[in-house]
Structures are given as structure tokens and as C-alpha cells.
Amino acid sequence: MKLGTAIFAVGALPSLIQALPTSSSSSSHTGDVLNQIWTRASSAVTSDLNAVKDKTFSHIVIGCGLAGSVVSARLSEDSQNSVLCVEAGSDTRSADNVVHAYSYGDVTSDEEKNFKYPPTANGRELSVSAGKGLGGSTSINGLAVTRPPQSQIDAFGQDIGTGWSWEMLLPYMKKAEKFDPPSDDLKALGADWDPSAHGTDGPVAVGYPSTLYRGEIINRYSEAITNTVGTPHIQDSNNGVQPGVCRTPNTILPGSGDAQTRVSAATAYITPNEARKNLIFLTGTRGERINWDDGSGDAKAQSVRLRQDEDGEFVDVPVSGAVVAASGAIASPVFLQLSGIGSSGLLDDLGITQKVPLDGVGKHLTEQTMSSLGADGGGDPDGNGPSGLIAYMSVDNLFSNSSDVREYVEDNLDAYAQSAVDAGAAVSKNAMLKQFKSHVAGIFDKQEGLVELFADNGYPSDRGGLVWNLLPFSRGSVSASANSAFGNPRVDPRYFSASWDLDVQIEAARAVRRIFQALGVDETVPGFDAGNGGVPDGPQNGDYQGWKEWVLNKFSSVAHPMSTCMMAPREDGGVVDNDFKVYGTSNVFVADASVVPMAISAHLQSFLYGVAELAADKIKDSA
Ligand SMILES: Cc1cc2nc3c(=O)[nH]c(=O)nc-3n(C[C@H](O)[C@H](O)[C@H](O)COP(=O)(O)OP(=O)(O)OC[C@H]3O[C@@H](n4cnc5c(N)ncnc54)[C@H](O)[C@@H]3O)c2cc1C
The Glucose-methanol-choline oxidoreductase N-terminal domain covers which part of the protein (predicted)? Predict the structure, then answer.
């Protein structure tokens, strides 16, 4: 059965009016029906709260970022649905620093277009960034397109129970994609593709920019990675084969040349559908909480409370079908908590009545950690990016004694799991052990990417070696700090609480030093702090203590938060079932990065577009 089939789109108006009864006794019913027919100006994008007052929607989506844009566009393909997507930020689609890929530094420091969620860690103020505005983080991100190894997605199904596999999710990732094959000119530079891995009819344009770096240093950098740590050259970073190093494509408009026009979830899924009469994107507005039906059984969302600013009026908008949380991995669990879904201790503290006891909400946060090393020299990269050389390095690429390393990791799993539970970052020790064992098999048996090396140009020096641990074992948490969508959530990623995560980060930094040495470039002081002195070289490319201090003083967040509303069995701390539906509810879903149960060895967007496409299908099919 489809959701919300009682709602009529504007296109049905003339025949509906003819069908309405004329007797005065039916006038209140007539009023109800007319109330549900909503009219608006030609654009689906508005910041006018009046556009949704006194209206009922079949679906209300909270957050118009990656997942929210996909789900709203797909649900509104059915003219019998009426979809409202609520976005905290504004319509930033034509902002210069959003449009042009080379404005990355500018847009990520633009307060209007970012949430800087404020965690503290290791005595440092470290924020986790997320995009704010239509398209969410895809309107500010680095545009890199890579996908996780096949075995990792299979493991989500086999080990965690999501029902996913590479074979099942690849068609959804392809459905989102419109790949533009590289020209011969770009191919000669090393831009390649595996046609079996790419979609060519989807809304999200992906390809290699004509401004691709052409300098010979880029291929030398790639060869230095292969020759130094053994990461092989691969054809394509999107066909599920790892480890490997290659040029990587971007979400960039084909033919946009020097303008390097960004393709975001907003330009791909909102702009082409703006004329739909059954779709509204309401900007500058936050989803505060769900109001519930009084009936018994699974909790049923009746309306969603919205607000435009901290002192603004509350507006309750009725929903006949489903509510979809798509506010990202930090804000979606907060929206559920403010709605009374979560653990009783937290909700009691906030003065919120518990509707659904669900301890996993906001737990299991995974966030990756990045260290940026720099070097001067190597020659002109000849181009202006975006940088597109990425290596996924395996444990064998990084550690010479990986069987000893495995033993060390396995010996510590119990302690890591217990510490996550003790810190309130995980619900079940056994579930954590299940996740960690899955990671161990992926890392050691399947040689999945353990570290990403993002080869940058011009940041932090002529050559950049930005490295991050892709598969952290540390787990953190997110919780509302006040009974308001305008409160700052408490975000505690518990970086490096699993000691292995620090070992990986240190080994990655050492590997970059060796690669720079092979390239013959002059390593600048890691962390570009002249007073710091860096980490002196030595037989092991710098001693453990030196690297430890440097990593802890200089690391930053990668801005890839995940897993705070995991898809997993409820007893394992799962928040959504395999249909993306929140346990204990009949019509509330989560569709964004929160549902991914563990970190992945890739940039997130290509994978998340596939997950959101899958979520849209599941929500369409749900009763
Ligand atoms: C700086 C940065 C660089 C990145 N670089 C890359 C990259 O190069 N390649 C890649 O693949 N991935 C990259 N990513 C990651 C990727 O873009 C995100 O993982 C992805 O967009 C997450 O999708 P989402 O739907 O979960 O959340 P988002 O896309 O972040 O969308 C969430 C939306 O919800 C809105 N919102 C929040 N709270 C509320 C509320 N209460 N009410 C209403 N709306 C709300 C937000 O404003 C936002 O629009 C990057 C991310 C960042 C932040």
C-alpha cells in the first residue's frame, strides 16, 4: 500500500471540485478536502512559513541535504504524494562560493553555510563541519567521488544484518549517477573509468574536470605511493576494488571548464523538479519535533513542529503518511530525541516525555581523523584541480608485521567494546564486538582500505599528504543539550579512545614521510607550525612519542560523521530496521548518513546517494 494516497495534487483540482458534494451539511468535509489541496507560486523553494500553514502533507522530510533532496524528489514523482522538505539553511544554489569548486576553502569557512558542531577532544576545540542550506554538505564538500570496497558493503549485510550487498546497492549508486567519460586528452593524463561501475542516466553529474592537474608531478606522486608502500595502481576508485591509487572523478558539471561548476544534491534533485506542484522546499526553518497520535500500538507521527528562529512561533504541520529524518548524522538523532525517541535518562534530563524507548539514538558515532603533512617542491602541478589523486592503503601497505598487529588488535577488542559501552557510546558490548570483528576481517583478510591518502596541491604546502584512518574503532555519541532544535548538540566523537586508531594515524603519517622522501620533495614541518619543530626523522621515520604528540596536537575532523541512528537489530543498538523505519514507530524513517552502521573506506557521497535512493524506494513501498 502506498502512503498518503488520500492527498490530491493541484493537477487534480478541476475534477475534484466537480466531484464535491454541494449540500450545506457537507461543508465542513468540503473545507477539509480543500485544505489538503495546496497551491503555491511556481517555485517549490520558499522561506515563507505561510506556504505550509493549514496544509497537510503526505510526507514531511526534515533536512534538504543529500538524503533529503533525493528522498523528496523521488517521493514527489508520484503525483498523489504531497511532499514538504524542511531545511534549516537557505537557498545557496547560486552563491559564488558554492557554485565554484575552487572556492572550497572559502565555503567551508562561511558561517552562513556551515554547521560547526562543537566537540572538544584532547583538550582542544575541534568542530565537526556539516553543510547548511539546500544540498546540505554536498553544497560545500570537496566533490571527490569514490566508493567503498565490495567486501565492506557485503559485510554490512552478512555481519550486521542490514540486508545490503554490493550487488544490491550498486544499481542504486548507479541510478543516482550520470557519468561523463573522460576525453582522450584526460585519459592520457591517467583519468580512467570502469564502465560497469557507473550510471549514465541519473541526476548527479560525475566526471573528470577539464582543469585536471596536468603536471608530471601528479603521476610521479602516484608512482611514489606504489613504489614506497606497495599500493597498486587501479583503474577506477568506484568499482569496489581496493587497495589502490588512481585519479578520481568529481561531482562537477561536464563542460563547465574553468568555472568548475559544482554538482550538489540541490542542483541534481531540487532544481530539475522545482516546477512540481506537489513539492515544497521550505528554507530557513528547523524541524523541532514530531507530535504523536494518541492511539496505542506503534507510535504514529501526526504532525511535525517547525520553527524559523529561536524565539519564533511554532507551527505544527500535519502529516498523513511518513516523516523522514534527513538532517545528517549529528542533527537527525537530535530531532528524534526532541521527539521523545531515545533513552529515558537523557529525555528525563531534558524534560521530554519518552514516546519510544530506543537507547541507540545518538550512540555509535564514528568520525574519522585527519593529519595534514606538507612538502615544498616537486614542480608545477599545472592546473587548478580539484585535487583528484587518492590512495586507499591497506594494512599490509602500512605495517611490515601485520600478523603481529592483528594479534594486538584482536587482544584489545574486548576492552574497546567495553569502553564504548561504559562511556555511553554503545548499547551492547556484543554488538560492538560483532562490528569490530567485521572490521578486522575486512582490514586483515580482505585488505580493505585502512587509510586514505588524499594527494593535495597547494595545501598545506606545494605538496599535500592528507591522511585519515578510514575505519576507526572509537565510538562516540551525540545528544541534545536543550529541548530545542536551536540548542547546540553535545557531540563527543571520543577520538582515539581505541588505541589502535592512534597507531593507524601515526603509521599513516610515517608512510607520507617516506613517500615525500621518495618523491625528492622537502618535507615542511608537519602541521605547518614553524615553532613546533615537527617530528625528527630517524630509523622508523620518527619515533612513536614524537608522532603521537604531533598527531594529537594537529589532527582535525574529516567531516564524515556516521552511524548515530544505525541500521541494525534493535537489541544491537539499532535505530532503524532494514526498511529505514525507526523501531517502535509506524511512520518515522531516517534516510541519511546516520543509518550507515560503520565507517566506510571511501568518501561518503557516492555511497550515500545510493543509500538514499534505496531509502526512497523503501519509504514508497511502506504502509
Ligand atoms: C567539508 C566537507 C567536505 C566533504 N567532502 C566530501 C567529498 O569530497 N566527497 C564525498 O563523497 N563526501 C564529502 N563529504 C561528505 C558528504 O558530503 C556528506 O557525508 C553527505 O552530504 C551527508 O549527507 P546527509 O544527507 O547525511 O547530510 P547533509 O548533506 O549534511 O544534509 C543535512 C541537511 O539537514 C539540514 N538540517 C540540519 N538540522 C536541521 C533541522 N533541525 N531542521 C531542518 N534541517 C536541518 C542541514 O542544514 C543540511 O542541509 C564532505 C563533507 C563536508 C562537511
Answer: 59-366
